[in-house]
Each structure stands twice: as structure tokens, then as C-alpha cells.
Design a protein that fits this description.
11 helices; alpha/beta; binds 5'-O-[(R)-(carboxyoxy)(hydroxy)phosphoryl]adenosine; 19% strand; Nucleotidyltransferase, domain 5; 10 strands; 5-stranded mixed beta sheet; globular
């Protein structure tokens, strides 16, 4: 079955055509990053307006690139939560109209479940159950993927998301927005033990995480140096910071994996593109003798194909939306 899928939860507008979940025929993405870079972060109103401007054109382009007729589309899937409410609403309303016009079912998809499903596209052999570390700009959580649609959150950040922490660190280092990649690039030439940075634990909740203390520590180092007129070594700070984030994520994930007894672990979301986290994960998975799945970079960030893939499994499980489907800024998995 062909699915037309829509993603607009943050600053990427994306429309894809997938077949039977895992086969991607077209995945068209329009990023607004350059527009938001002028303001140092995502401006919700600009995001919503930009989604409105491009979404119809992207849908036409996706159908034409896939080489199918609109009448062949069997369902419309849409990322309806969580995200910037005005931005999500654009995708939801477009998807509702498309489903109505095509006379096909509408399938609501949780954005984080979509990120996890990016792994199914990249790895045809991957099937649940497995543990997935979902790390994006707005969310950081450890998810027990019990089946394609039944998931349990094993732990999550108590404050900032890992991606948010990368973006704030980039801002204070003068690296612009979005900051994850520039911090990653800068960190490669640095010493990861040059700056002592905290690795937080949440008492009594071994799989929960906290990044606000780390973020504040980086800001304090930079501001203190500025006040004293001292130079900081930006590459060393980026490397020490990346190591601290990775240390907060990778060992915790492996501990949770041991408790669950699975032999498969995955990562998902924009921050899964990080080279330090990827390499620490590879070492940890090798040492534990488990199989690691991390999507290629293009499938880590927001895209429409991952929504189409998860949408297929949600469709099979009977999930349906109608004209009353709403968008939600937050939603449990
Ligand atoms: O998954 P995503 O595209 O959007 C959300 O659903 O939030 O994730 C975006 C986040 C941003 O915070 C961005 O800075 C971060 O992913 N990111 C990275 C890297 N590439 C993107 N963080 C660390 N290292 C990277 N290489």
C-alpha cells in the first residue's frame, strides 16, 4: 500500500510516499533552518507560515517523484504530536484535507514513534522487540519498543532535551543555529577531558536523565572566561561537552538493555547523527555483544518517510483519524 505522509512538527516541512512501510519512493524535505538561524533558534510563527507556503508544492513533488498516480494512494499519515502547536496544525490540516479529497483513511502518527521507525527503513531486517534511545531537539527518551506500535518509556530527560543542550552550547560558542552539527565538527579537534563537566543522575530513577546542569556549566565556563578576559579553547570545550552528553546517554542505555534482556539496541532522532555518540555506542554494543542500529544521517533528522513507515504499522494496527483530529504540543508515547 502506498502512503502519503506529512511531517511539520518543527522547522522541516516534509512529505513522502512509501510503499508497505519500509520502501521509500519519494522523500521531499524543505528545511527552514536558514530563516531561523537569523534569530538563533526556531521562531514558531515563522515556522507555521513557512509550512503553509510550501506544503502543497512538496506533496505534488513527492507524488511526481514517486511516479505514482494520486488515485493509487491508500492512506495519508501525519505527525500530529508532539511539536510546535502552530507548526503541527499545518501538517494535520493538510493531511485531513488530502485524506478527504482522496477518499482514503487518515492515520495519526506520534512524531517520536516516527523517529524510531526510521530504523526500519534503514535496516530491513530489524523487528521489535528492541530498545531505542530517541534523541532529538525536543525529546530525549529511552523507549522499550515491544512491538511496532506498543512502546513503553523506560526513562526520559527531566529538563532539557539533548538536542536543546547542543543548540544552547553552540549559541554560547558563537556557532549559530542549529548547533548540533557545528559543535560535533568542532569537537573532533578537541580534548574531551580538558574541561570537567557534570554527568547528572536522577536519584532513584536510573534511566532518567538531566541536561540543564551541563548546559549551565558550559555557559558559566564561557561567561567566566569572558569576564576575566581569558581565552577558552572552544574545540576542547566542544569535545568535553560532547563526551558529557554521550556519557549521560550511552551507559544508561546499555544498562537498560541488560535489564530488558534484548540483544538489539537502536538510536533515533537528530542527535543520533552525533559522531561521539555513534562511536561510543558502537564500542558499547561491541563490548556487550549486541546488535546496534543507528540510521544514516539523512534519516536521523525530521523527514516524511519515517512518518509513512510508522503510519503503515499504525494503519495495520487500526489507528484512524477523522476530520476532528487535532494537533498536540505534547503527548505521551
Ligand atoms: O530530530 P530533529 O531533526 O528534530 C526534532 O524532532 O527535534 O533533531 C534536531 C536536533 C537539533 O537540536 C540539532 O542541533 C541536533 O538534532 N543535531 C545534532 C547533530 N545534528 C543535528 N546534535 C548533535 N550532533 C549532531 N551531529
Amino acid at each position: 500500500m502506498y502512503i502519503l505522509s506529512v511531517e511539520s512538527t518543527c522547522d522541516e516541512t516534509a512529505v513522502a510516499i512509501t510503499r508497505d512501510g519500509r520502501e521509500v519512493l519519494a522523500d521531499v524535505i524543505s528545511s527552514q533552518a536558514d530563516m531561523h538561524a537569523l534569530y538563533g533558534g526556531v521562531v514558531p510563527e515563522i515556522a507555521s507560515r513557512s509550512h503553509v507556503e510550501v506544503i502543497s508544492r512538496l506533496a505534488d513533488e513527492a507524488v511526481s517523484r514517486a511516479g505514482i498516480k494520486k488515485s493509487e494512494i491508500g492512506a495519508v499519515a501525519v505527525s500530529y504530536a508532539p511539536g510546535l502547536i502552530g507548526a503541527v496544525l499545518v501538517g494535520v490540516n493538510f493531511a485531513k484535507s488530502a485524506a478527504l479529497a482522496l477518499g482514503v483513511p487518515l492515520v495519526p502518527v506520534h512524531h517520536i514513534k516516527g523517529h524510531i521507525a526510521a530504523n526500519y527503513i534503514a535496516f530491513p531486517e530489524l523487528e521489535p522487540p528492541f530498545l531505542c534511545l530517541a534523541i532529538s531537539g525536543g525529546n530525549t527518551m529511552l523507549v522499550d519498543v515491544r512491538s511496532y506500535t506498543d512502546m513503553r518509556v523506560m526513562g526520559a530527560t527531566r529538563d532539557d532535551a539533548a538536542g536543546e543542550c547542543f543548540d544552547k552550547t553552540a549559541r554560547v560558542l558563537g556557532l549559530g543555529y542549529p548547533g548540533g552539527k557545528p559543535v560535533d565538527d568542532l569537537s573532533r579537534g578537541g580534548c574531551d577531558t580538558a574541561y570537567k563537566l557534570p554527568r547528572a543522575h536522577v536519584e532513584g530513577h536510573p534511566y532518567d536523565m538531566s541536561f540543564s546542569g551541563l548546559k549551565t556549566a558550559v555557559i558559566n565556563i564561557v561567561h567566566t572566561a569572558e569576564q576575566k578576559g581569558e581565552e577558552i579553547n572552544r574545540a576542547d570545550l566542544a569535545a568535553s561537552f560532547s563526551a558529557a552528553v554521550s556519557d549521560s546517554l550511552v551507559p544508561r542505555t546499555m544498562e537498560c538493555l541488560r535489564e530488558l534482556g534484548y540483544d538489539k539496541v537502536a538510536a533515533a532522532g537528530g542527535v543520533a547523527a552525533n559522531s561521539r555518540i555513534r562511536s561510543d555506542f558502537e564500542k558499547a554494543a561491541k563490548a556487550a555483544g549486541v546488535k546496534l542500529f543507528v540510521p544514516p544521517l539523512r534519516l536521523c533528522g525530521d523527514n516524511g518517510a519515517m512518518i509513512g513507515c510508522q503510519g503503515y504499522y499504525e494503519y495495520l494496527a487500526g489507528a484512524r483519524g477523522d476530520s476532528s483530529l487535532n494537533a498536540y504540543a505534547t503527548m505521551e508515547l
